Amino acid sequence: MTEENLALEIRNVTKRFPGVLANDNVSFSLRKGEIHALLGENGAGKSTLMNVVYGLYAQDEGEFFIDNKLVEINGPSDAINYGIGMVHQHFMLVPVFSVTENMILGSEVTKGTSLDLNRARKEILKISEAYGLEVDPDAIVEDLPVGVQQRVEILKALYRKANILVLDEPTAVLTPQEAEDLFVVMRQLTEQGVSIIFITHKLKEILNVADRVTVMRRGKVVGHTSPKETDQQGLATMMVGRDVLLEVEKSPAKPEDVVLEVEHLKITDERDVEVVKDISFEVRAGEILGIAGIQGNGQTELVEAMTGLRDATSGKVYLSGETIPFENPRYLVEHGVGHVPEDRHKHGLVLPYDLADNMVLNTYYQKPYAGQMLVRDEQAVLKNALGLIERFDVRAPGPDVAASTLSGGNQQKVIVGREFSRPLKVLIANQPTRGLDVGSIEYIHKEIVKMRDEGIGVVVISAELDEILSLSDRIAIMFRGEIVTIVEAKGTTREQLGLWMAGATPEAVV
Amino acid sequence: MEDQQISQEDNQSMMDKLSALWRVIAIPLAAVLLALVIGAILLAVSGANPFRAYAALVEGSFGSMKAFGRTLAKATPLIFSGLAVAFAFKAGLFNIGAQGQLLFGALASAAAGFMITGLPPFLHATLALLIGATAGALFAAIPGALKAYTGAHEVITTIMLNYVAINMTDYFADGPFKDRTEGNIVARTPEILDSARIPSIGEIPVGFLLAVLAAIIVWWLLWRTTLGFEIRTVGLSPHAAKYAGMKVAATVILTMVISGVLAGIGGAIETQGIVYRYQPGFNAGLGFDGITIALLGKTHPIGIIPAAILIGAMKAGASTMQFNAGVAKEITDVIQALMLFFVTADIIIRKLIRSKAESGETVTLSGWGQQ
Ligand SMILES: Nc1ncnc2c1ncn2[C@@H]1O[C@H](COP(=O)(O)OP(=O)(O)OP(=O)(O)O)[C@@H](O)[C@H]1O
Ligand SMILES: [Mg+2]
Predict the structure, then answer these.
(1) Average pLDDT, chain A
(2) Does the residue B187 lie in any domain?
(3) B13 touching A, CB under 8 A?
(4) What is the CA radius of gyration of chain B?
(5) Residue A205 alpha carbon to ligand 2 centre in Å
(6) A471, B40, B71, B283: least buried by Cβ within 10 Å?
């Protein structure tokens, strides 16, 4: 039927989960050597479709063709044999293993009965050189920055001779520079004949690297397009089904009293490195302070100290003039500080818990969720969940499903819903829209601005320059544990931000 | 028409619940059956008639009201030790020390039983029980505190403390608490007073009823209270627990204390309902069996009751089997070990009963931040 040179064709795939039709008769084709973007709202079924292709889930209906031949994929090992490699939305590396050990996991090179790590190591070096993917084969994975961990995942796929590469939201956790590097690698790979399926919520990236785009909504394919035929607005409309505001609409801030003050804060991390060096700043009620910086410049630790997750070596944090104790998250919950944590799986959620429990994770002991004698009120917990699911448009079969079954973006909405719905004085949101689709980002940005206008002091930490620029009233730029400068967002350009983030002194940038 | 739809939905959720229940019990059930089948093969190979042996086993454990009562009596301390292990497990703690905590509970309640005099029966029995519970709690607090404040792994510390418990209880039974009645040369305490004994109602031991009550309370505590929510959160994700403002270290200690209370009561009931004194050796293995039972019961408080009755029945029926079918009692230990093996090795079972890994269950290891 097809004369086209297809690397992979998915025909009429349907996949159901209890209460969810995740893929509804989906067809998709991937040409040889192209980068094909898969775009869709949170929960549209993108990851599910890819997991089916990779053999992690069995489809209920549908067929796969590789090189125009019908194939059966009954597990990841089949997929790997057919040359499919996948980098998951949430990485699948063993943190305590070295890069080499991780790469050969499942396809171990042996010498007799023992592992031939040396040969594997050499081969890895060869591949990493060939594709310009630099990694130290002996590094322990958990010590590596996410960007490099991702490279390990890609190398792992290439090591297994993948010529169809699935990248599920690879840029969600990357810095803009790391993302650029990734795109270079992707183009290089396609030149060598690899075909790539690229999932992302960042429309700019699609316009930047994709050859074609397939758009999904609520389990169905709703359209095809290409960067030549459309723009960001077009893509957004196609995906959400309505016009989306890509820019934040907000009136000038009306800052009032200082609600949060950080004074000479110093933090040393587990390795005894001073990661935050004498930082001071203020946040006023009714303003949004953005904190920009390349990942690993102390933002994570700064936020952890402000939110009770980490001790500081010296310095103070004041909330409405009162000193807050370190390492006491409950104090903050009870004094009106909301926190959207950077790592939703580590801190933000208990994945096996249902949505209802996750939505009261830090208020579970308060009225009305608990009454006399520590007894929980299930009804109140459920009612809260139903309200938040509705208000934040969480796409889930119900409040009683495990958080682990939600799509990444919907997991984020569970956390955002929980934190935004408490009475707050200060909101600290670390990467609040990571992994969210444009429609949800629009909604969450609106909510943040609304909270500001109600007189809440907001701190937003983001790796997205666009988010920082459009959301913040003032921007603090961090570099190597220090605040380089704090500027008014109005009039600041992307370029200026980029220079400061790279360590240029404030005076050097005009 | 609308009505029909609703009842259909009800049916659907009913079916969902049933199939969820089935998924939970399928594996332990299969493990038990598989262990029995292999046990039968072993019996046949060793020249015995497996059908006769199993028939005798059933007769000895369920064949009469008396046999049934014996089964329940055997199951009683096992429910407690199973609960102790399962409870700790919910906070992510592997309490191998239930044995030691149970020994201290048994010894302490015996001491209270023979030393305290002049109390009315109900009061004396209750007091002795509480003293047993406290002994278990205090002994379990040690590994709890070590874990919370130094990070020492509870598996190691509880194993080591088991030896401490065995030797200390031996010492007390042969020293300060020794039964000095004329002619006694064995290490044991004097008999407890009648007022400290826990009776039976007909053939049903009151201790068993207490065990069932304890299981229900544990279930309620874990799933209906904020404390239970904290314990489970700490068990599933200590990082998220910290974020949620829970006191992780305190929760770890408290969990171990409650686990020790359960094990201690198990020992006390054994003293006050069966042995009527503390005598080394009489409680051997009851705490360790708790591990098997917790796993067979899928670490669910209610699941532990049938699991304990099953193991209790094998213990109760073993002598009848030896008598009637002429096979060594120890075969029941082998079967029990096989059950433990198969529940823990549930991959083998899954393969055998073709229950594919649940979609969505983590097949691989870790994602960013998910550790
Ligand atoms: N293991 C699972 N069990 C039950 N439901 C699931 C499971 N995995 C996914 N789902 C459901 O299937 C739907 C599609 O999820 P999927 O993860 O494919 O979305 P997605 O398009 O990748 O979204 P995102 O952009 O947020 O990552 C969602 O409604 C989700 O709740
Ligand atoms: Mg996804």
Answers:
(1) 91
(2) yes
(3) no
(4) 22
(5) 17
(6) B40
How many separate domains does chain B show?
A: 1
Which residues in chain B (255-314) have CB-CB distances under 8 A to chain A?
none
Which position has the higher pLDDT, A104 or B45?
A: B45
Give how far A501 is from chain B: nearest CA, Å. 24
List, for residues A339-380, the tens digit of each pLDDT value.
999 989 999 999 999 999 999 999 999 999 998 778 999 999
Flag if B239 and A149 touch (Cβ within 8 Å): no
- CA pair distance A140, A99, nearest whole angstrom: 6
CATH T-level fold of A245-336+423-510: Rossmann fold (3.40.50)
> What is the reported pLDDT for A173?
78
**CB-count exposure of residue B269 (10 Å: 0-12, 13-18, 19+):** buried
Domain boundaries, chain A: 3-240, 245-336+423-510, 344-422
> Does the distance separating the beta carbons of A347 and B240 come in below 8 Å?
yes
d(CA A24, CA A253): 45
- Say how many Å lie between the CA of residue A202 and the centre of ligand 1: 19
Do the domains A245-336+423-510 and A3-240 match in fold?
A: yes
Q: Does residue B338 sit within a domain?
A: yes
Does a structural domain hold residue B277? Answer: yes
Identify each DSSP E strand in chain B by its residue range. Answer: 200-201, 204-205
The mean pLDDT value for A114-129 works out to 82
Hey, which residues 284-343 in chain A have their CB within 8 Å of chain B?
A: 308-309, 328-333, 339, 341, 343
CATH number of A3-240: 1.10.1740.10, 3.40.1440.10, 1.20.1250.20, 3.40.50.300? 3.40.50.300
Task: Give the range of the structural domain holding residue B59, as residue numbers without chain letter.
Answer: 17-353
pLDDT, tens only, A407-434: 888 999 999 999 999 999 999 999 999 8
For chain A, the 3-state helix, strand and coil shares in percent, each to the nearest 5, are 35, 25, 40
Interface confidence (ipTM) of the complex: 0.87
CB-neighbour burial class of residue B212 (10 A; exposed 0-12, middle 13-18, buried 19+) = middle
Residue A69, Cβ density class (10 Å: 0-12 exposed, 13-18 middle, ≥19 buried)? exposed
Name the percent of chain A lying above pLDDT 70.
Answer: 97
Question: Is the pLDDT score of A163 beyond 70?
Answer: yes
Closest-lying ligand 1 atom to the alpha carbon of residue B359: 1
Q: pLDDT grade, residue A64 (50/70/90)?
A: very high
Q: Which residues of A are less than 8 Å from B360 in CB distance?
A: 17, 404-405
Answer for the pair A79, A53: CB distance below 8 angstroms, yes or no: yes
Neighbours of B139 (CB within 10 A): 27
> Helix or strand or coil: residue A40?
strand
Listed range (A118-132, B65-79, B247-261) with the worst mean pLDDT: A118-132
Q: Is the pLDDT of residue A143 over 90?
A: no
Question: Residues with beta carbon < 5 A to ion ligand 2?
Answer: A 47, 89, 407-408
8 Å CB contact between B140 and B105: no
- Chain A contact for B225, CB < 8 A? yes
CATH value at residue B244: 1.10.3470
Question: Which A residues in the span 2-21 are in contact with B, Cβ-Cβ below 8 Å?
Answer: 17-18
Q: Which residues of A433-442 are buried (b: 16+ CB within 10 A; e: fewer)?
A: bbbbbbbbbb
- Of A42, A90, A407, which is best to mutate to test ligand 1, by the most ligand atoms within 8 angstroms of its C-beta? A407
The per-residue b/e assignment along A97-111, b for 16 or more CB within 10 angstroms, e otherwise, is bbbbbbbbeeeeeee
Q: Which residues in chain A have their CB less than 8 angstroms from residue B226's CB?
A: 364-365, 370, 374-376
Q: What is the pLDDT of residues A430-484, one digit of tens each?
A: 999 988 999 989 989 999 999 999 999 999 999 888 899 999 999 999 999 999 9
Mean pLDDT (whole number) for B329-350: 83
Task: Chain A: give the shortest CA distance to residue B143, in Å.
Answer: 24
Does B7 reside within a domain? no
